[in-house]
């Protein structure tokens, strides 16, 4: 019993440290959140006053991303909210890549309430842009697919970019190299999933040179409160 108590204490400490690390990474480029929010509001007002709808859309997306990044009150959020974060991120990137970035969602409506660790999919989309879209001049399609099977929620972020060589893929899996993104990395996502749901769950990276890359996330299918209410009503 004493050994188990110690294990639980160590697990809780590790979870808090990892959460803090995630929070610090989200905050590291931040000067002052209120200052940034107020500045973005001013820019948005100016854009709307000058009928610059595209600029206003980008500013609103960026403001939403900032609010989402600095708020860590909830460790688990509905898939719907995570996809809102992803859409806002894609909106900011569309300005840079325009028609070269083709984003697609294949997520059934009944799965939108599924609970997932916050900032699980957005970093994967960010990595797809860095590895698949940036190195080439051709358009790149990035997709998010969600399915449920046998009580498990399967999420997949895939692209049709240049892919990765087997050697580089092994180094990436073993942690010898880090992803290009400046935000939350694959290791951080894996560790947060393990701390939340246990060791059997996590992410897998699949890629072949010339055929694209896909990252698979497998976690327990945890329905949100709204889903339970609807199910009871039905």
From TrEMBL:
Catalytic activity: ATP + protein L-histidine = ADP + protein N-phospho-L-histidine
Keywords on record: ATP-binding, Kinase, Nucleotide-binding, Transferase, Two-component regulatory system
UniProt cross-references to InterPro entries, sorted A to Z: Bact_2-comp_sensor_kinase, HATPase_C_sf, HATPase_dom, His_kinase_dom, Sig_transdc_His_kin-like_C, Sig_transdc_His_kin_internal
UniProt GO molecular function: kinase activity
EC number: 2.7.13.3
Enzyme class: transferase
Superkingdom of the organism of origin: Bacteria
Domain Histidine kinase residues, every copy: 53-223
Designated name of the protein: histidine kinase
Origin species: Paenibacillus brasilensis
